[in-house]
Amino acid sequence: MDNSPILFENLTRAHPQLTEKALVDFVNGLEVIDDHIRYRQLTDSHFAGRLLGFVSGESAKRQHAIDQNVAASLATVSTWLQCLQKQQLHSDLAVTKIAHKLSETRQGVMRLQARHEALRQDVDKLLLAMDDMDKNFCQLSLRIEQVNDGRLASQQMDAVFSKWQAGHLQHFPVVARLFLVFDELYWGDFGNYCRQCGWQHREIARLSQQVKDNSLVQLKQDWAQAKLPTAYDWQSHTRQNLQGLATEHNGLIAYLTEDAEDVVMPLLWGLNQLADKPEKANLSVNNRIPFFLTPENAINRVSHDFEVRYASIQ
Amino acid sequence: MPVSNKVGLVLSGGGAKGAYQVGVLRYMAESNMAVDAVAGASIGALNGAVVASAANLTEASAHLTELWQALAAESPLKVNKWVVASYLGYLCLLGTSHLSPLLSAATKVLKLQKIVDLGALDDSPVRKLLDAYTSPEKLSKGLPLYVSIFESEDTLHTVVNTVMGMLGLADTTPSEFRHVQMCPEAIQRDIILASASLPILFAPQTIDGKRYLDGGIGGWLTAQGNTPIGPLITSANCSHIIVTHLGDGSLWNRHDFPDTIILEVRPKTPITQESMVQDMLNFKADKINRWIEQGYDDASRCIGNVSFVIRQQAEAKTAQSLRDAAVASLDDGFHIG
């Protein structure tokens, strides 16, 4: 199709142009012919008219006029046909060119389709990779959050034990001190961390052990001062201490240990009983509390009770 | 090939059949056509004078309709009784002049007076009508008007030559063409009337010392005078000319003007209603109205057909250009992949 413009020029040069005059002469010439034929029919219908037309030469002149218009019309028709044919050639060449272009475009589109398909697959892979990355990011975020929570939990733990070591819990019964420490940890960052990660989490286990260890260090000192070899001693010591406390402090301990059940959380249940009614003279000892109560088993007992609380929330 | 793109209008002569041209002009006005120059012969000159005096074809059409309704109501042809009596007397004397020297002398006197040049019809009603619609002032503001006039030293000789032309034995001498607005105002009306002065019926008009008769007489065999296209081509430089004929099967030949685009308005049905003479001189209302309608229909057909083809051709050329441009735009070197 590269030579088509040259061909167009050749066509334009080779064929005559249909002028406005030729068109007018053709269309209007038909009217002239029609007028002459009609008039000739009229005059030739009688002898005198035929004779006069012959003698005056009018018939011949009229025939000449008709012939001239017919010839001009035919010439115009011929030119017109050539022009139409030329235009048809133009149109055919144009259609051919468009068909070639269409074919080329079609092939291009097919190639694009193939590329698009490959690209789509690449995009799918990228999406999968992005998905993985997103998961990794979430995990990392979670991990960072956990680390942060662990740091906060550790900080809270340090703060709580510093408070205990500083003697700020000295006016509470010994086991109540232990309970209050555990309770404060439970409601603070430490507790949040435990609830988020679960009790079985390695870091929680480590921190939990650290709590127990710190509690043991402090509780041993407090225990030695209070002399609490048996559960009965612990109970009477605790009641005495509670009786010495302000009512609102007793209420506070009773409120905090309100949910403790005697079967699964015997030590806290006992503390609740004592705090709820510190003036009660006869108090039976829950047989689930070890008879010989030591700082270790007191810590284990409270720790266990709190594990139950954590487990019940989770 | 013509390049001026000016449109001319030729109004042929034909007496009362001139009403046909009213219909043609009405169609042209309704089609919002415009012309740049007018040429007329005989009744065509009178109609042309009204067209040239009007502001546009719409006004011209309205004036012509009004004028021709007036003609239909009252014929402009009034018999000049004294002249007719003289004719009759002369004819009687021709047969009796040998009887007496007195009669012979009377015949010679009448012949010397050239009674045929007095005109059997009075031209004052035509002058009056012409004055109602045209004036030198109006003409000076209007379209260029060309009229054909025929110089005639001897009316009888002219009549004989015309009959010879009708029989195809000899052609009449060519008519002259005058650009009316280029003539002195004092003679402009005379020139227009001269173009419509049928020999014997109307008195010749004397212009610049010469006697002129109906312009349709000149160049009889080729209708050179009756269809005055010449000045529109040579003087007005018109490229497109609309020619109205007032006869059936006019032998005027468009191919004599190969460089001009000519559109002829020819009748589809016989324009002749009675005899040739009656159609020229009888201004009956029903005939006039029929010719007006016929002129309108023929113009609508002849001009409409040509307009349609020209318009279609122009649209085809536009479509071809669009096609070629669209196809050429594909050669921009763009390729996918």
Short description:
The complex is a heterodimer of chains A (314) and B (337). Chain A is mostly helical. Helix content of chain A is 81%, strand content 0%.
Structural commentary:
- The complex is a heterodimer of chains A (314) and B (337).
- Chain A has 314 residues and is mainly α.
- Helix content of chain A is 81%, strand content 0%.
- The longest helix of chain A has 108 residues, at 58-165.
- Chain A is rod-shaped and about 170 Å long.
- The longest helix of chain B is centred in the last third of the chain and has 44 residues, at 285-328.
- Chain B has helices spanning 19-30, 43-53, 57-73, 81-96, 101-112, 124-133, 136-141, 155-166, 185-195, 230-234, 276-281, 285-328; strands spanning 7-11, 37-40, 78-79, 121-122, 145-151, 176-179, 205-207, 210-214, 240-244, 261-265.
- In chain B, strands 1, 2, 5, 6, 7, 8, 9 and 10 form an eight-stranded mixed beta sheet that branches. A two-stranded antiparallel ribbon of chain B has the order 3-4.
- Helix content of chain B is 48%, strand content 12%.
- With 337 residues, chain B is of the alpha/beta class.
| Cα shape of chain A | rod-shaped
Cα(first) to Cα(last) distance of chain A is 80 Å
Biggest pleated-sheet summary of chain B: 8 strands, mixed
Characterize the overall form of chain B.
elongated
Alpha-beta content class of chain B: alpha/beta
User: How large, in whole angstroms, is the Cα Rg of chain A?
Assistant: 57 Å
Helix content of chain B: 40-55%
- Strand tally of chain A is 0
The major pleated sheet of chain A works out as: none
Helix content of chain A: over 70%
Mean pLDDT of chain A: 86
- Poorly predicted runs of chain B are none
Task: Please state the structural category of chain A.
Answer: mainly alpha
Order of helices and strands of chain B: EHEHHEHHEHHEHEHEEHEEHH
Please report the total strand number of chain B as a whole number: 10
Beta-strand residue fraction of chain A:
under 5%
